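Input record, target 12 of the design panel.
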């Protein structure tokens, strides 16, 4: 699994530089902007440092070609879950998608499964209980496809479990 590191600069709006308390959860997101690139979304988060109204970021972005970009170190807080306490104990992963359904394409999905399995192993997390949707934190319709199709979300977590058990 290849991960490109393209860190945001430390700033109060998207990379505060605050250390995480622990990693107990992984929160999944979708970018809600079909056909955009991972690097384009990374650059959006970077641009937030020039304003003072929106605080949002994530640790990872997975692109339409399956590329993975880390934009905030895993040991730092990202503003992704909509909940300060959850942000302090979780890693956020944004995923690109080809259309308004929010369903990830095969390349994005496969990279997500690999990244989730890797994180679960390294942080001793149970994929069936410790991988959650943004929706599970705030009720936001994110990631849309997995809110609309909860059985597909369960399948994703089982695919991660299977990857770990190989």
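The sequence produced for target 12 reads:
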């Amino acid at each position: 699994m290849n991960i490109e590191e393209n860190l945001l600069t430390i700033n109060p709006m998207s990379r505060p530089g605050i250390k995480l308390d622990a990693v107990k959860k992984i929160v999944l997101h979708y970018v809600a902007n079909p056909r955009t690139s991972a690097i384009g979304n990374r650059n959006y988060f970077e641009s937030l440092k020039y304003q003072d109204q929106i605080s949002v970021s994530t640790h990872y972005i997975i692109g339409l070609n399956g590329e993975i970009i880390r934009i905030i170190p895993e040991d730092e807080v990202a503003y992704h879950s909509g909940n300060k306490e959850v942000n302090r104990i979780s890693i956020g992963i944004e995923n690109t998608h080809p259309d308004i359904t929010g369903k990830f394409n095969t390349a994005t999905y496969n990279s997500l499964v690999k990244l989730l399995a890797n994180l679960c192993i390294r942080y001793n997390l149970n994929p069936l209980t410790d991988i959650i949707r943004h929706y599970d934190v705030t009720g936001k319709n994110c990631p849309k496809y997995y809110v609309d199709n909860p059985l597909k979300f369960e399948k994703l977590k089982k695919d991660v479990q299977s990857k770990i058990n190989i």
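The chain has a mean pLDDT of 97.
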